[in-house]
Amino acid sequence: GAGGASGGRRWLSTGGAGAKTGFIGLGQMGSRMAANLAKAGHSLVVFDANPSSVDAAVALGAEKADSVAEVCAKECSTIVTMLPASKQVEEVYLDSKNGLLENANPDTLFIDCTTMDPSVAVSVSLACSERGHTMVDAPVSGGVGGAEAATLSFMVGGSSEGFGRSKEILTQMGKNIVHCGDAGKGQVAKICNNLVLAITMIGLNEGYNLALTHGMDPSTIANIFNSSSAQCWSSGYVGVPGTKDYDKGFQVALMAKDLGLAMKAAEEAGVQLPLGSGACEMYEEMKGDPTVALKDFSYVLEHLKGMNK
Length: 309
Fold this sequence. Notes:
Elements: E1 20-24, H1 28-39, E2 43-47, H2 51-59, E3 63-64, H3 68-73, E4 76-81, H4 86-94, H5 100-103, E5 109-112, H6 118-130, E6 134-137, E7 140-141, H7 143-149, E8 152-157, H8 160-171, E9 174-181, H9 185-213, H10 218-226, H11 233-238, H12 252-269, H13 274-287, H14 290-293, H15 300-306
Parallel strand pairs: 1-2, 1-4, 2-3, 4-5, 5-6, 8-9
Antiparallel strand pairs: 7-8
């Protein structure tokens, strides 16, 4: 049930002995992030809709919960969530019977690492505050590799107090922790970053497609781009065009999702995104093919080649 901010701290501090940490959402990213918390010595309580993901975390020493409410019942003072999208965040936090806010201990710290609509992050954060809890939105950059190696970047939105309380645990899952401003600003930062990333990835591969179609050697043009003003994060990521393993990395479907969030945020703010809207259309089109949807987002090179006359 609900509780004020005063009662809980006496018997359960955020980092004290016996305090437990909940982790909800053990997908590609969450499973690796939770594993790093287990390695760092947290008493973890985990829940995911997929039982095999839970079993894998239990094998690393985590305690199993059978529901969101049960994570709360196991007296977690901090709960991390890593969910697919806004809809799941609203369900997990706000469900009137089984949600986190209905069942959490007083003065719980919530760290939500989902990438989602900034306005949802703001409304859920407000609901947490009204119940005497603290929440930060802390979406990540760095992908599965960063989650595995605990080198993620966290873009954090929330109060200074919330940022201060969450920093210790975030440092155990990542290495670049930035306070972006109040609630929702972590989401704004993440969405804007991925907007720029999509645009540069498409621009880079338009250049590659043109050069390769004119018969240039792939490694020659890659060397030129990477030592000239076309050099960017995407050019380093792609390497020599055509050599990347498209089955690993940041999926086309996820980039399409993030660009959709950018378009919505732009519409709400009255901002035009001429290149962003083109990028969003292109990734939505790619996502329409179920095989391509799972490919790395640099697969846009193959998509562009397919558009050649």
